[in-house]
Amino acid sequence: MNSHSIIAIVVVSGLVMLAFAKWPVTFDVPEGFYGLLYRHGRSLHRISPGRHWFWARGYTVRLVDMRKITLDIAAQHVLSADNVPLKVNAVLTYQIIQAETALHDVHDFAAHLAASVQLAVRSVISATPIEELLHQRFEIGKQLIARVEPDADHIGIIIHALEIKEIALRGELHNVHAGNKLVP
């Protein structure tokens, strides 16, 4: 066989392969996100920001926001330690650091965090008299973080901040704000 025949065979076989090959699958992972790569539903690994090409079928990517996220925690009705009825809501700032854990270990990590914060708020507020709530808001935030961090760590999330956003006296139109004053 001469070199022209070998080249012709290589070119023809390449064309045949291209004719039967499928177009590549591309995934774009934006900055601030990671992609979790799956093949036929099986988790493979994390992919970094950028464009990724795969020549085989069956690949999917799930994007995970790795930036800081702020979550408003719905207001709930709680009695303080001295039986004052309150309506309390909080705000949580968190960041996913282990995308695989956050997505694979719980069904909905944001709902899991919100429930954990609500339970912590209920525990801390119900053990604290109203006077302390007015004067020790930052210490209460630290207590809340201490209660929520173990749950968050378990699912690959770090807590940056957790604070009481507002405390309202239930049944009245008064609010307790950061200035520790009752405002009509």
Account of the protein in words:
The chain is α+β, with helices and mostly antiparallel strands. The chain has two domains: 22-66, no CATH class; 69-183, Band 7 domain (Tetrahydropterin Synthase, Chain A, 2-Layer Sandwich). It is 36% helix and 38% strand. The chain has five helices and ten strands. The protein has helices at residues 3-20, 99-104, 109-126, 130-135, 137-154, and strands at 25-29, 33-39, 42-47, 50-54, 59-65, 69-79, 85-96, 157-169, 175-176, 182-183. The strands form three sheets. Strands 6-7-8-9-10 form a five-stranded antiparallel β-sheet, with helices on one face. A hairpin with a 5-residue loop joins β9 (175-176) and β10 (182-183). α3 (109-126) runs antiparallel to α5. The longest helix has 18 residues, at 3-20. It is rod-shaped. The model is unreliable at 173-184 (pLDDT under 50).
Describe the global form.
Answer: rod-shaped
Order of helices and strands: HEEEEEEEHHHHEEE
Mean pLDDT: 86
Instruction: Classify the beta-strand content into a percent band.
Output: 35-45%
Reading off the top of the CATH hierarchy, the class of the largest domain is best stated as: Alpha Beta
Unreliable stretches (pLDDT < 50, length at least 5) are 173-184
The major β-sheet equals: 5 strands, antiparallel
Q: Give the CATH architecture of the largest domain.
A: 2-Layer Sandwich
Strand element count: 10
Q: Return the structural class.
A: alpha+beta
C-alpha-based Rg, rounded? 27 Å
| Structural domains: how many | 2
**Helix count from the secondary structure assignment:** 5
Q: What is the helical fraction, as a range of percent?
A: 25-40%
Annotated CATH homologous superfamily of the largest domain: Band 7 domain
Distance N terminus to C terminus?
Answer: 97 Å
* CATH topology type of the largest domain: Tetrahydropterin Synthase, Chain A
Strand order of the largest sheet: 6-7-8-9-10
